[in-house]
Amino acid sequence: MGNWQDNRIIGLFGIELPIIQAPMAGATTPEMVIAASEAGGLGSLPAALLTIEQTRAALDQIRAATNKPINVNFFAHTNPAADPVAQMAWRTALAPYYVELGLDPAVPVPAAGRAPFDDNYCALVESYRPEVVSFHFGLPGPDLLERVRRTGARIIASATTVAEARWLAKHRVDAVIAMGFEAGGHRGNFLSDDMATQVGTMALVPQVAEAVSVPVIAAGGISDRRGVRAAFALGASAVQVGTAYLLTPEAKITAFHREALKLARDDNTAVTNVFTGRPARGIVNRFMREIGPLAKAAPAFPTAGGALAPLRAVTEKDGRPDFSNMWAGQAASLAREMSAAALTRYLVEAD
Question: To the nearest whole percent, how much of the chain has pLDDT over 70?
């Protein structure tokens, strides 16, 4: 398309195209990040499921392959206090599935977790100095945030409401990701847990653009060029695309997840908390239908996944998605199979 109405993100990040490949924990690979950045967009590495050593190895691989700007993404949640009563209730709810699959409902299960941004991750940012650092679920504490800022990184974070966007702007982010309710994966909400009042992309982006002076990045339900054009018309300076990148060969997802994406419809995703304890949008499967999708019994994020691990291990071995999250947004059916580099360029090409 070429003539962007708002060029601030391009200048701010030092990129050629206003396309941000979304950081998708578990699915994004260093190869995807490299391809998106080399194509002119902003490749994004998710660190929430990676140890310090794994993050370091991924960044070494990325930096060896490209000198283009990259984004490293972190979760900014606080891990919950131990709650054995909630865990016991969750195990009780899952017990019939254990019995069905021939598993002992009382067997110890692995701990489930996603690491929040902390001193160790901050030291990694200080060492590698990525051009952009993004946060989900709000922002880390002021001391950590100031350390990130001193590296020269541009700081961005997700907002799912105008109130969250204003809060982020008040805390001096360089840009706000306006994450519509259509988006796949974990919701970025942090001021409200009410999923009934979450806002769609078309309504959210222009209101955020009116409310804050920093540039706005549109996210949610954008899988093709029409969505990109619409985002710019609504006042966005760039778009963040996730689900469409899941159909690239660089994505690391299961065969059944990839097949489900190819068969996706507008109405077969739902927001659920049953996989992690926090609302996230994914393709509906058996577990979501039978116990949720928003189950009161699910313990606090990120602890819900531990008890699911044995069930996932058995069913995934048989190629069944019964207890596995398949994150996807509502526009998954518009995604097309192509390389990450080709997708990054396609999203801004003229028809």
Answer: 99
CA distance 68 to 167: 30
d(CA 72, CA 39): 18
90-99 core/surface letters (b: 16 or more CB in 10 A; e: else): bbebbeebbe
Give the confidence band of 139 by pLDDT, cuts at 50, 70, 90: very high
Distance CA 226, CA 160 (A): 22
CA distance 38 to 211: 33
